[in-house]
Amino acid sequence: MGSLNLDRAEGAGAQKILCLLDALRGSQTGSAIYHQVERMLHDVVSSRQTAERAYIALISQLLDAYLAHIRGGSPLQVQIRLLKARLQPPLTIMWSGIQVKSRRSSNWMSAWSKTL
């Protein structure tokens, strides 16, 4: 149908929109509208992916900084490393419901993860 990258959830939403507009491709004017919408959707999906990569880099750096303050062998250190290993897009699905608790951290990770 188009050249849109549909590997992710927002790509699937874009695909649904393009399916609704598929009948427009029968005429010259409709085809021009279809391709313009397709380009706009591609830009939205691409922008979202770029933002997610930036968030992942920031979160990774924050987790590294946090790890530097945790004593070696602590269960919290293992939890943080497991979180880092799972740090991949889409963030909205991956980060939902994650809570990391620590006596020393006053539960900042739980509050932080709910804001993502």
Description:
- This protein is mainly α.
- It has one domain (9-114).
- It has 5 helices and no strands.
- It has helices at 9-21, 28-67, 75-85, 91-94, 108-114.
- Helix 1 (9-21) runs antiparallel to helix 2.
- The radius of gyration is 20 Å and the shape is rod-shaped.
- The two termini are 33 Å apart.
- 5% of the residues are buried.
* Envelope shape: rod-shaped
Question: What's the mean pLDDT score?
Answer: 77
**Strand share of the residues?**
under 5%
Total number of distinct structural domains: 1
- Give the SSE order as H and E letters: HHHHH
Task: Tell how many strands the DSSP assignment holds.
Answer: 0
What about the largest sheet?
none
In the predicted model, the low-confidence regions spanning at least 5 consecutive residues are 100-106
List key phrases describing it.
116 residues, mainly alpha, 5 helices, 0% strand
